[in-house]
Write a structure and sequence with these properties.
By secondary structure, the chain is α/β, with parallel strands linked by helices. It has 13 helices and 19 strands. Bound molecules: S-adenosyl-L-homocysteine, iron/sulfur cluster and FE3-S4 cluster. The site of FE3-S4 cluster has 12 residues, from helix 2 and helix 6.
Length: 468
C-alpha cells in the first residue's frame, strides 16, 4: 500500500521554533523566569505528547513545577476515553480558578483528547472563562504559535477544528530521566470500535517514516535508555510504504546494537499476523510480551463493538503466538457492560479470560461516550449489575495472576531495575522481560542495570527477590 505523506514541511516547523524564540525573548525582556506545570492524563501516547509539550516549553524558557499554585502556566493534557477521566479534568479546571485569582497573569491551557470534543470546548468557552488556550492533539505541533498569540494578544485562543492530522518530526522533547522511553510510530485510528472516542479526537491513521523511527530509537539507545516502547493506537496497521509493515519495522530496529529492550502497544487482533509473531520470536531485543486487547469473549458483543474478529480467531492468534514464543507474557483490555450485553455474554468474557490465562488485565466498565455509535444503543442493565459481573472477572483474573506469580518463586529471572519502590524491605523496582513488576533487595546503584534475580515470594500484583 502507498504511504500517505502528511509530514509538516520543514519551514512550517522552523516557524514554530521562531515562536519559541520570541516567547523566550519576551520573558527575558521582562526579566521573568517562567515556570510551567504540565499535568498529563490518559494513555502513553498522551504521556509522549506531554514530553513534547515540555520540550517546546523548555525552548520557550520555562522550567517546571508539579504545583499549579506556583506556575505561570498550567497545562491539562487530557484524556476522553471514559467519563470518569473527563470529570476529573473538569474538577481540576474548577480548582484553577483559585490559582488564577492569586496570580491573574497565570495562563491556563487545556489540550489533549478532551479538547478535541466540540461538547467540551463549547463548555469551556462558555463556563470556564479562566481558560486561555484550548487545542486538540492534531494541533500540538503549533503550540508555540498558539501560546505566542495568547501572550501577544492577551485574548483566549481556541484551535479545535476537526483535522485528519499530520506528522511533525523534530519537535523538541523533555523525556523523563531514567531507563524508559516512548516512541510514537503511528498516530490516529481508523477502526471506529463502536464504544470508542479515540478515532474522533485523534484523527486518521498515519505512520512515521521508518528512517525517522529507527533514528529516534538509535539515539535513545545511545543515550542510555534501556526499555523503549513503540506506541500507536494500533501498531499493527503501521504502514511504512511499499508493503513495509510493523513486523519489518521491529526487525529493523532489532538490528541496532546495544543492551536494551523493545516493547510495543497496542496491537489490534484483527491486524496481528503470524509474521509479526515470527518476527518477535526471532528478534533478540524485542520483549516476549504482547498486549492484545480482546474487549469481549462473546461473538455477538464483538460484532456490536465492531472489532472484526471472533473469539475463535482471537484464540487461534494467542495459540500461535505462544507456539512460537513459549512463556510469552500476554495482557489484555476488557470492557464489561457494553450496551445490551447480557450476563451470559459477560460470563463468556470471563471464560475466555480463564481460557487464555492472561498475565494481567486492564478492566473497564463500559462508559458511554457522546458521539459514538454505542452511546445511542439501548443500555438497560444497571450499574450495580455490571459491577457484579466486573467483580466476577476480577476474582478470576486475580486468582490467575496470583498463581502465575507464585510459579516464579524459586526461579532466577533477568530484570531491568527502573526506579525505587515504596517497600522499605525491597526498595528497588524492576521489570522482567515480560513487564512483571519485581521488588528487589539492594540499593540505588542497581537502577538502570539489567540484573539476575532470584524470586523469593510473590502476591497478586508483584514478585519479590534478591540479586544473585
Ligand atoms: N487503541 C487501543 C485502545 C485505546 S483505549 C486498542 O484498541 O487496544 C484503551 C482501552 O480503553 C480500550 O482497549 C478499551 O478497553 C477501553 N475503552 C475504550 N473506550 C471505552 C469506553 N467507552 N468505556 C469503557 N472502556 C473503554
Ligand atoms: Fe478505540 Fe478501537 Fe481505535 Fe483502539 S482500535 S483506539 S479501541 S477505536
Ligand atoms: Fe485517552 Fe486520548 Fe489516550 S482519549 S486513552 S489520552 S488517545
Amino acid at each position: 500500500m502507498e504511504r500517505k505523506n502528511v509530514e509538516i514541511p520543514a519551514q512550517d516547523l522552523a516557524r514554530q521554533r521562531d515562536f519559541e524564540e520570541r516567547i523566550r525573548e519576551m520573558f527575558s525582556a521582562r526579566q521573568v523566569h517562567p515556570v510551567a506545570c504540565v499535568d498529563t492524563f490518559g494513555c502513553q501516547q498522551n504521556v509522549a505528547d506531554g514530553e513534547r509539550l515540555m520540550g517546546m516549553l523548555e525552548a520557550c524558557g520555562f522550567t517546571f513545577t508539579q504545583e499549579p499554585g506556583q506556575a505561570d502556566l498550567v497545562i491539562l493534557n487530557t484524556c476522553a476515553v471514559r467519563e470518569h477521566a473527563e470529570q476529573r479534568v473538569f474538577g481540576n479546571l474548577g480548582m484553577l480558578t483559585h490559582t488564577k485569582k492569586d496570580n491573574p497573569d497565570q495562563v491556563i491551557v487545556l489540550c489533549g483528547c478532551m479538547a478535541q470534543e466540540p461538547r467540551v470546548s463549547q463548555r469551556v468557552k462558555e463556563s470556564y472563562r479562566h481558560v486561555d488556550l484550548v487545542f486538540g492533539p492534531q494541533a500540538l505541533w503549533r503550540f508555540p504559535e498558539l501560546l505566542y498569540r495568547v501572550y501577544e494578544q492577551r485574548r483566549r485562543v481556541f484551535s479545535v477544528e476537526e483535522e485528519d492530522g499530520s506528522i511533525a518530526e523534530g519537535i523538541p522533547v523533555v523525556r523523563e530521566r531514567g531507563v524508559k522511553a516512548w516512541v510514537s510510530v503511528m498516530y490516529g485510528c481508523n477502526n471506529f470500535c463502536s464504544y470508542c472516542i479515540v478515532p474522533y479526537v485523534r484523527g486518521r491513521e498515519r505512520s512515521r517514516r521508518p528512517e525517522a523511527v529507527v533514528a529516534e530509537v538509535r539515539e535513545l539507545v545511545a543515550s542510555g535508555y534501556k526499555d523503549i516502547t513503540l506506541l500507536g493506537q494500533n501498531v499493527n496497521s503501521y504502514n511504512g510504504g511499499d508493503g513495509y509493515d510493523f513486523a519489518d519495522l521491529l526487525a529493523e530496529i532489532d538490528q541496532i546494537p546495544g543492551d536494551y529492550r523493545i516493547r510495543f502497544m497496542s496491537s489490534h487482533p484483527k491486524d496481528a499476523t503470524h509474521k509479526l509473531f515470527d518476527t518477535m520470536a526471532r528478534c533478540t531485543h524485542v520483549a516476549k510480551q504482547l498486549h492484545l486487547p480482546v474487549q469481549s469473549g462473546s461473538d455477538r458483543v464483538l460484532r456490536e463493538m465492531n472489532r472484526r474478529y471472533t473469539r475463535a480467531q482471537y484464540l487461534e492468534l494467542v495459540n500461535y503466538a505462544r507456539s512460537v514464543m513459549p512463556g510469552l507474557v500476554i495482557t489484555s483490555d476488557i470492557i464489561i457492560g457494553f450496551p445490551g450485553e447480557t450476563e451470559e455474554e459477560a460470563m463468556e468474557t470471563v471464560s475466555l479470560v480463564d481460557e487464555v490465562g492472561y498475565d494481567a488485565l486492564f478492566t473497564f466498565i463500559y462508559s458511554p461516550r457522546p458521539g459514538t455509535k454505542a452511546a445511542q444503543m439501548p443500555d438497560p442493565v444497571s450499574r450495580a449489575e455490571k459491577q457484579k459481573w466486573f467483580d466476577k472477572l476480577l476474582e478470576v483474573q486475580n486468582a490467575r495472576s496470583a498463581a502465575l506469580h507464585a510459579a516464579y518463586v524459586g526461579k532466577t529471572v533477568r530484570v531491568l531495575c527502573d526506579g525505587e519502590s515504596d517497600d522499605a524491605d525491597y526498595p528497588i523496582a524492576a521489570r522482567t522481560d515480560g513487564n512483571r513488576l519485581v521488588r528487589l533487595k539492594g540499593d540505588a546503584s542497581l537502577i538502570g542495570r539489567f540484573v539476575d534475580v532470584r524470586i523469593t515470594k510473590s502476591n497478586t500484583w508483584a514478585l519479590y527477590g534478591e540479586p544473585v
